[in-house]
UniProtKB/TrEMBL annotation, chain A:
Protein's name according to its UniProt entry: Integration host factor subunit alpha
UniProt gene name: ihfA
Function: This protein is one of the two subunits of integration host factor, a specific DNA-binding protein that functions in genetic recombination as well as in transcriptional and translational control.
CDD domains, per database record: IHF_A (cd13835)
Quaternary structure annotation from Swiss-Prot or TrEMBL: Heterodimer of an alpha and a beta chain.
GO BP annotations listed: DNA recombination; positive regulation of metabolic process; regulation of DNA-templated transcription; regulation of translation
Biological source species: Azospirillum cavernae
Record-linked InterPro entries: Hist_DNA-bd, Histone-like_DNA-bd_CS, IHF-like_DNA-bd_dom_sf, IHF_alpha
Keywords of the record: DNA recombination, DNA-binding, Transcription, Transcription regulation, Translation regulation
Similarity field: Belongs to the bacterial histone-like protein family.
Gene3D superfamilies assigned: IHF-like DNA-binding proteins (4.10.520.10)
Lineage: Bacteria, Pseudomonadati, Pseudomonadota, Alphaproteobacteria, Rhodospirillales
Automatic annotation (TrEMBL), chain B:
UniProt entry tagged with the keyword Flavoprotein: no
SUPFAM superfamilies named in the record: IHF-like DNA-binding proteins (SSF47729)
NCBIfam families: hip, PRK00199.1
Stated name of the protein: Integration host factor subunit beta
Source organism: Azospirillum griseum
Job of this protein: This protein is one of the two subunits of integration host factor, a specific DNA-binding protein that functions in genetic recombination as well as in transcriptional and translational control.
Molecular functions per Gene Ontology: DNA binding; structural constituent of chromatin
Family statement: Belongs to the bacterial histone-like protein family.
Amino acid sequence: MTQNTVTRAQLSEAVYQEVGLSRNESADLVETILDEISDALARGEMVKISSFGSFQVRQKGERIGRNPKTGEEVPILPRRVLVFRASHVLKNRINELQDAVDAANARAAS
Amino acid sequence: MTKSELIQRLAERNPHLYQRDIEKIVGTIFDEISEALARGDRVELRGFGAFSIKRRDARTGRNPRTGESVDVGEKCIPFFKTGKQLRERLNTD
């Protein structure tokens, strides 16, 4: 599978094409959306985007880690981490193609 | 914060835009990300994070209620890695 990387530029371009704002304003809006989400997460809020997924901040306690190279024990300090849970809609969308292939294989096998 | 609350905040910050345009913009962005992942592409938003897909091999699972074996086909799952800047922001103060 050839893998491409989508960045802010493509998202702004899509907004520009779909909505018809200027390229500059489209780019600003993409940035504003990411900022609003980041701000909410920094406040410790959960961010739920229906049919896409949710972002949640979790508090992790201190634990002892190890430097894999030297074997030395190092404390990992308590910290806040972000977890993303994809919605079923997104999961299904990602596996649609694969499911179609599987279904075809199953038909061929029976 | 939900998607509609996000739209509400954007509307307050952009009084010159129609609400329906803001809805369309938010929809377009998440749709583009989903579409990219469905194609197998990666989505990298510097400072925020990166979305990618990871492949899970086929395995034999079990129905936890009945204990019965079930074949689980190969599948892909979306994955998000928090960007450096956002990770640091979550841990300041």
